[in-house]
Amino acid sequence: MKKIIMFFKKRSWLLILIACLIFIPQSFSYQAKLNMRVVVTGIGIDKSGDDSYEVTAQVIIPSPGSESGGTSARLDFISEEGSSVAEGIQKIAYKIGKEAGLSHTDFIMIGETMLSDNIVPVLDYFARDDQVSPALALLVCKGKAKDMIEKTKNLELSVGLGLRKVFLNKQSSLNGLVTPVNNFIADSYGISKTTLISGISISPEGEEEEPKESDVISSDPSTGSGGNSSTGSGGTTPSKSTSEHSDLPGGNQNGSSSGSSTSGDQSSSGSGGGSQGGGQGSSGGGQSSSGGEEKNARIKFYNDIYYFKDGKHVGTLNTEEEILGYFFQSSKSTNGEFKVSGVTCDILEDATIGLQFSNKKSETKVSFENGKPVLKFTITIGSLRTLEILNKAKRNVFVYSKQNKDMSKAINKAVREEITEDIQLAFEKAKTDNVDIFHIGELAYQTKTKEWKKYYDEFGENYLKDCKVEVEVKVSNFN
Amino acid sequence: MLLTKRQTLFLVVICLLASKVQRLPSLISTDLGRHGYFVFLIMGMIDFVMLLLCLGFNKLAGKTTTYELTQKTGGAFYSKLIFLLFAIYFLFNSILPYEAVHDLFGNILFDHLSWPLYSVVLGLTIFFIASKGLKNMGRLAEVFFYIIVLSFLMLLILGASTSNLRLTLPVCDIDGELLVQICFKYNIWFGDFIIIYMFVGKIKQDDGSLGWPVAVAILVATLVLTFAYMVFYGLYQEISGEQNSLISAISQFALLGLDIGRVDWFLVLFFQFAAVISSSTYLLLASKCFLAVFLGEEKASDKADIKRKKLVCFYVVLTLLTALIYFLDIFIFKSNQEGVALMASFTKWLGVAVVFVLPVILLITASVFAKKRKKQEKNLQNRFKNLSFLKNSKKTTKASVLLEKKLRKLEGGEK
Q: Are B32 and B176 a contacting pair, CB within 8 Å?
């Protein structure tokens, strides 16, 4: 043994040679494997028949000589039909003659045609595949996912590829929601069986897409929506902010701020940047040099929130108030802008105030009063700043005085009322569809198990009927 | 002396962490769901209690090795039986971290990897590390300990920042019977303190007070692992069973905003050093135990030809065990899920015997040994006293010189 060891010690080059002979031939085929792989950055799923799905893959095709972070790559879209998502992806790979690499997939876009059925089984593939990230973001679009996903080519490349990151920024600033596919599936097995997915709408700048009646499918009444489906034809009214509040911070960014936040630098101030820039909000999303094409598409600012029960779509939060109401209570949304109207005090008359807040924290607690669950939100706004005041009263220079206690008091009060009202609106809207969007059931079960079990034994699936929501808003620092 | 106290501590912690944060949480979550952290807590506490028995054994043994102690107390057959149990236990424990590396590289990182070929590399690596002996193993642990622990803690922090720990509530609706069953089923993954038995008598400056640092380390590690499971479940809830490895899964949601991809994979790979070191350690100890069963333990007093013979046999046994691990990995663990289930069902009684029963037996053995030694010492002292008049008369006999030497040796051993 010693002789063998000494032999190899003196001739260590022999060991290196043996290692090279074993591993280098292996690596020859790895180069080929890299070239035989196409990177899928997004997936769209539509229903094309009773038992078939149309899967559209957004793939990135690098141009020769393109560098990492460069803009010379382009997006391509390949669609195939299959009896399952897995089959669709396989066919796509077959069609392009390369292996579909899903480890860089950022989002899954679900078309409206899918919403009539339970989508959890459809997403099963993504929960099981080891290559797919469990943080894959789900998005719902009106019409066909294939059409919407193809519009991403008109967005700036980094936006089109990184919708998840865009929506993460939007989530922190009150206008988007990121629902990872794993969370969607897991939550559908919880007590409330409720999950929410953000909508997405991409359109050329200045054009808002109206929902087409024929494309919209109503939800299944058996889920207890009471026929009050918000996806009924024409039911999806455009968000108020898009038409009425174009001058105010919140409403000035139809799609533009998302474009402007694409660089990733503006992140949570994406909407802030847009608000201050007004019409300049689109600057970040301006022309991309890719192939000389003009990238003039924008993502809608306030996107609808679709709520699901047991994997089936039930309704949508589609007004600005409802959407804001959901985000105000969310601990993931920490800053943003909104407006309060009808503020009156000694120097203000029916004024509309534009406000910006940051460091918002939200605490949730469930208690039982008279045997019925009460969900209490305590929302603490770390910093609140007045952006602009549109006052109907006579011109008064004291409007610019930050020390005016009456005005501060009035604005504070209006903020508290607005937030409370918005949250209640969102809750009541979903409550009419018997959907527990704030997961009162889960919270009650986790923290007040005995009382909850007693209550649930009595009311069962209709437990939401007697549930209440209370909101307390505190403003720590008001400028 | 081969190891310092620090090296011993580091080896124990590395072995403790290596296999528990890979596939085990996923297996437990399939059965117990959000209450799975109780398995880590309960088994960790049991390990802590058994560790105290082990440390008591260490104190009573003094500078005597476990083999020597058991041999002197219970005879050759007794010591060989115990070491055979150790050998089989260590062999199975060597497979677990090996499988963890297989899982990570073969199933998660790469989708088309010729694992039978790359397993050769891993096999050669653990063979090489194990062949260098305990001293080098200790040094290796010292070199990599901080990077392993830091990587683990950073991954845990990343995971905790996005996890909803409330999902592990409530506690009161736990199924106690199922919990006990699962603890029993997966007990082979615990009990890492058993390696200390192999270090007894081989630790520098060990006055029997290896004691509190190891105990504190195991307690802290238990709490951290319990928390790690809670973070894992808080992220994946009902789909936790689909995740192959906790260590690669918990940081998935933390760095989504970065444009540069998943930099946390560096931390995952650094942590995998623990799996390689752990597998090598158990392999080395298994080889030593098998060798002790057939040829007895290595002693400093062995003659040169016996030493060479034992060394050759050690390499042969090491090679055979490495090959066995390789083939078990390729054939039995072809399907990781089924291989692990098979292993869990096959080894649960072995785990109970080694982790729960053996420390008690060994502590009793050590107490008997300590009593015997005390008695022997007394006898020697008395005999020396009787011969002391010879010393005074300046007439020393060979016997008295030998007696004096023996007495000094005994006194030195007790210190």
A: no
